[in-house]
Each structure stands twice: as C-alpha cells, then as structure tokens.
Amino acid sequence: MLDKNTLIGFSLILALLVGWAYFLKPSDEEIEAYKRQQDSTNIATIQQDSIVRTSIDSLKNNAVLSASKDTASANEAFGTFAIAAQGTEEFSSIENNELKITFTNKGGRIYKVQLKKYKTYAKQDLVLFDGADNVQSFDFPTVDNKIINTANLYFKPTISDDKKSISMKVSIGENQYIEQLYGFDSISNMLKYNINLVGLENVIQRNRTSLDINWTTNLRMQEKTRDAEERVSTIFYRVKDDEPSKLSEGSDAKETITSDLHWVSYKQQYFNQTIIAEKGFTDAVLETKNDPYKTNLRKFSSILTIPYDHNNNESFAMKIYYGPNHYKTLETLNISLERIVTLGWGVFRWVNKYIVINVFDFLSRYIGSFGIIIFMLTLLIKTALLPLVYKSYLSAAKMRLLKPEMDDIKEKTGGDMTKAQQENMKLYKKAGVNPFGGCIPVLLQLPILFAMFQFFPSAFELRQQGFLWAEDLSTFDNVLDLPFEIPFYGNHVSLFAILMTVSSVVYALYNNQATGVTGQMKWLGLFMPIIFLFTLNSFAAGLNYYYFVSNLVTILQQLTIKFFVDEKKLHAQLQENKKKPVTVSKFQKKLEDMAKSRGVDMNKLGKK
Questions:
Q1: Helices 567-579 and 417-431, interaxial angle, to 10°?
Q2: Which residues contact 536 (CB under 8 A, 6 or more apart)?
Q3: In which domain, by residue range, is 42 found?
Q4: In this model, does residue 22 exceed pLDDT 80?
C-alpha cells in the first residue's frame, strides 16, 4: 500500500497537470483561425496534385505522340523491317584462348576484337578495333522500295552455353528472318561467319541477284613508329587459283575486281584481319586511304558482293582470321595467306622461305633469346658461305701479287687504257688468274644480304623481343634521343646502326689493303657504310645486329684464311703458270672455232 506522503505527492502532480492544461488551452478565436489555415492548405495541396497529374498526363501524351512519330518514321524508312529499326544497343561477347570478340546487337556486327596473347608497343591490350573503328554490314532493296542496311537494325543475340558462338537474328514474321551466326573454328582458330536469309525470297526485290557486304576499318597504330607501320599497311586479296595481289602500300589506292575473289586481308605491320569466302565473292571494290589527321594509321574499305538466288533458305559461309602475320601460322591455313608477309621477290624470297624462316623456327625451339638465335643464324650462314669467301680471298690475293706487273704494263703503254687492258688480260691468262674470281663469290652472297634486309623488318618472331640494350629487335634501338631531327637520319641514335657502320668501315679498310684497290673504288668502299648509317638508323635493331655480327665474322674468316695462305708459294705458283702452255677453255675454243669458220683469225684479231 502507498503511504500517506506518497498519496499527497501524486495528488499534487495531478493537480498541476490539470491546471497547466486548463490555462494553456486555445481560445475560440484561435481555434477558428487554425481551421481557416488548414482549409487553405488542403486547397493548395489539391491544386498542386492536379497540376502534377496534368503534367504527367501531358508527358505520357507526348511520349505516345513521339513514339507514334518514331514508328511512323520507321515504317516510312524501313517498311517491312520497321519492327527491327528501334531498340537499345546492347553488347555480348565470346572468347577462346586467343581472342575475345565483343558484338553489338545494333547491326548484329563485331564491335571489338582483342588479341589476348599480345600487347601494343605501349604495353596496353592489343585491340584491333573498337566501336566505330570497324563497321561491317550488308544491304539490299525490298519489294516495297526500301533500302535496308543491317547496320540500322537491332538483332536479338543468343549465346551458346559454351560461350564459343553467338547468333544474331532479326525476325519480321514467322520463319522470316536474317541471321548472322558467329562461332570459333576449333581447328583453325578462325571465326566462322554465316549469313542466313530465311523466308525473304518475296521480300527482297526479285531483280536483285546479289547482296553487298560493306566492310570498313580504321587501323589502329600498334607499334613504336607510325612511319614503319604505315608504309607496309595495305589491302591484300587473292583471286581464286591465283597468287595474292595487293594495293599500293603507303598511299591512297582503289581497285575493282570482277573475278571470283577468295579472300581479302587488311594487313598492317604485324597483324591482319582477313575475311575468307568459301564459295568466293563475285565482285569487289577495295580502297585504301591515309588519314590526313593522323588519328588512325590508315582507313581500309571494301564492298564485297555475294550471290543471292531468291531461295527460301540461303546461306553464305565465310571465315575471319584475326591474328599475327606469323609465316608458319598463316601457312597452316593453306590459303596462301602467308604471302602477305614481306619476304622479297624471286631468289630473295626463296632464301627467306626455305632457309631463314626454317632456321629461325628450329632454333627458337631450343633457344629462348632471339639475340642468340640471330647470332647462331649468322654463324650458320657465314659457315655455309666460307668456300666462297675462301675463293674470293685467293682471287684478291692473286690480283694483289700481280699488281707490280700490272703497274709495269701501265707504264709501258703510256696511259693507253685500251692497250693496257689487253695486256692485263694476257697476263691474267698466262698466270691462270680469273679477274672476276673475286666478284662472283661476292655476287653469290648478295641474295642472302638482301633477303635479310626484307626478313628482319617483317619477322613477327622479333616483335617485342629484347636483347642487350635493345628492348625490341623488330624496331630501332635508340640509346639517345636527339633534341632535333637530322635530315634522312632522324631524331635518335641507334647503337646497333653505329656498330654496323663502324664494322663496315673496318672491313672496307681491310679489304682495300687486301686487294690493293686504289682510286675511286677505295673511297666508295668507305663512303657506302656512311650511306647505310643514314638509311638503317630507323630500321629494325635485329637487322643492324645481324649486319654487325656478319661483318665481324667475315673479318675473322679473312684473317684466318690469311694465316693459312702462304703468299710466297702462291706467287711462285703464278710465275710457274706463266711457263706452261696457255690452256683455252671449251667456251673460248668454241668462240675461236666459230670465228675461224667465218674466216677470222682470232690470233690476228687479238694482235690488232
């Protein structure tokens, strides 16, 4: 129970609360004012709600009107295909170990291609194209006189469970659709691309017997220098059962082909994208353009015509290659696509194709450094050429030993060059010396020299392969950037180019001493390396490195041969040869017999 004091306390609190409420209650006038204020607020709220509802209804009406206008516009522009002319762009992708390919539903086309195993020179993901850089579509006229371009249609994507293929489809009715089907070929690693036209035989104009595939690409710069990449980028193509051809490199060009075209390749320095038609394109218009703003490397475009026979179900099968210009890889495709790799022409190409590439391929299986591989390649080539070097040295040594006698002839003939030459030829004949013996071995080595000049700048194997101070053997090694540009030389210093030049000058000095050459020929041998310095300063470091090592090995071979050749014995042999009867070669004898049959005495002719 509560005690007396507690009851008194609660009673006082209750009395205070009641008194507080009584004295603070609003008057009748205040209550009436509050009611008027509430009524005004309610009216304003109702009016605001009415305005909002009116705005929403207006927006809905405008949206419906806009959609109605868009639909009317789509119907006017696309006719039967108006249902597919509106939509929202969405992206899908498929990939394998080599490629990641992104597609857009707008146009059902390839939107982006990334080569997963490679990087650009700037060490970024290597993307051949992205977005508007590449547009691939086809167009056709319809019976309701509309020109339909698939780039303006929204396709429905369906990706396979294994993420290796995707179907892009536009339907305009039951069993009436366009399908673009893409999927990886597990054998060749190419992308299979089929255009399927179903139930459109009465939709496409009857007089239309072909469709045009439009393919435009803005090439991205992937390598170190724009000039080196730009000058070898062009369109290659192959007419069936013929050798591949190409448009002009480095300049604008356009060509129309009216024969069955097997494939078209957009080739840049180390990568290409090639579309191959299984049954061939019937016609094509190919065009290359330089970018005057230097935003892209170059712009390539093609119009490729495919046949259409108005059947209920028609399909045109193609394959697309995205990848490196690696000779052995392209060769396995068996479509002559390896011909886009620059190896030179004639004998130079044979040297690269049958010797250099195979040696590179073999050595790269066992040696990880391509600098060492180039060194080994040089040793193998110079060893194979050693017999020619030996013959060239002997011929030069003989000519040098005969030089005192030749000087006597020059003095005796009194400056008569024709007579001196005749006497020199008699001397060569008596001594058994072939004056061209030193030239022929050198000429036989030229195909290899020029083959290397073609091979190294285009060898994919060297791309981004470093050695010593060169971070990339496929491009120049700059040990010093100059604050200015020297005409024909550039704005950088290539150490391998300098080493190549110095070794060439040393070899020229040694060769001049060994052969006893004088006059203009002596200075020409020293001047040419300087020309090569300006020419090769911006070329692949691998090429200059090869020439440098080749010069060193050649000098070493010459010194070794000199050590084993006794020039005193060689001189004695020449003098002994003079005492022997002069032997006439079969060819020379045949010429003399022919002359005698015409009543000409070769001996008398020689005396004259």
A1: 100
A2: 494, 497, 500, 543, 544, 547
A3: 35-81
A4: no
